[in-house]
């Protein structure tokens, strides 16, 4: 039996319970201000605070290894950009700048996305979409996506295990066949999984004329209000920056 994928939802060990709408807002905020760099240098002090949010959430979910890896990579990237980058010139400096930029901007959003996928079930996501009156033309593809990536990740682990049994690894004698024997089955499985999940969503009543019921209990609590306030701060600062109130 294959182990649980890092993207597979596990409601028994998700730590602090947040409403799916709160998680989506956190993800959008991370993408806008950390990945997109909204506000520029005027909001540079807000970025480290937002980058700490995925770390806190991973710790509350008791994902110690993911939290430690994230902390190590981000601190290394941030330290290199502050202390080492000004001392390096030329091509090495450009490569270091690119590496620090990729890790510092992409990693927090990726970790936030992993947390959203690993702590939100499809039923909870659909219920939150219904609460926001989102059209099913959007909610159904997104619900399929919530099951697609964890299933593909699980298939990828199974393919890796099968290839290791046959000695097809980087260090093995058949390493030249690794790309062919891993990527082609993965692509084939991805196409098949997408079709099966779409059919499963329709069989469960998504997209029907009758409004679908849901037994999931979702709602805003104290932790959601705190997260919403945290998300509101950078948007308020961005608005004040646009109005010229703050530089």
Task: Please provide a brief summary of the model.
With 247 residues, the protein is mainly α. The chain is 68% helix and 0% strand.
Structure description:
With 247 residues, the protein is an all-alpha fold. It is built from 8 helices and no strands. Helix 2 packs antiparallel against helix 3, helix 5 runs antiparallel to helix 6 and helix 6 (136-165) runs antiparallel to helix 7. The longest helix has 30 residues, at 90-119. It is flat, with a radius of gyration of 21 Å. The model has no long low-confidence stretch (mean pLDDT 82).
On the 0 to 100 scale, the average pLDDT is: 82
Order of helices and strands: HHHHHHHH
Number of strands: 0
Number of distinct helices: 8
Q: How much strand? A: under 5%
* Residue runs with pLDDT of under 50 for 5 or more positions: none
Task: Report the sheet with the most strands, covering strand number, pairing sense and barrel closure.
Answer: none
Please give the radius of gyration in angstroms. Answer: 21 Å
Q: What structural class do you assign from the helix and strand content?
A: mainly alpha
- End-to-end Cα distance, whole Å, is 56 Å
- The general outline is flat
Q: Helix share of residues?
A: 55-70%
């Amino acid at each position: 039996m294959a182990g649980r994928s890092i993207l597979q939802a596990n409601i028994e060990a998700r730590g602090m319970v947040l409403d799916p709408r709160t998680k989506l807002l956190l993800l959008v905020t991370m993408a806008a201000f950390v990945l997109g760099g909204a506000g520029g240098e005027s909001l540079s002090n807000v970025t480290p605070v937002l980058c700490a949010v995925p770390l806190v959430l991973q710790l509350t979910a008791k994902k110690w290894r993911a939290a430690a890896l994230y902390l190590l990579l981000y601190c290394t990237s941030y330290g290199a950009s502050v202390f080492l980058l000004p001392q390096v010139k030329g091509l090495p400096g450009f490569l270091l700048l690119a590496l620090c930029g990729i890790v510092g901007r992409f990693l927090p959003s990726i970790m936030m996305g992993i947390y959203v996928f690993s702590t939100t079930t499809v039923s909870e996501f659909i219920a939150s979409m219904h609460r926001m009156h989102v059209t099913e033309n959007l909610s159904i593809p997104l619900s399929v996506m919530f099951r697609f990536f964890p299933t593909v990740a699980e298939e990828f682990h199974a393919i890796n295990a099968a290839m290791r049994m046959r000695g097809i690894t980087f260090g093995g004698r058949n390493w030249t066949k690794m790309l062919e024997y891993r990527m082609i089955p993965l692509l084939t499985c991805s196409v098949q999984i997408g079709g099966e999940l779409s059919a499963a969503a329709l069989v469960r009543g998504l997209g029907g004329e009758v409004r679908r019921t849901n037994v999931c209990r979702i709602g805003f609590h104290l932790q959601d209000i705190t997260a919403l306030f945290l998300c509101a701060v950078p948007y308020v600062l961005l608005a004040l920056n646009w109005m010229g109130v703050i530089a």
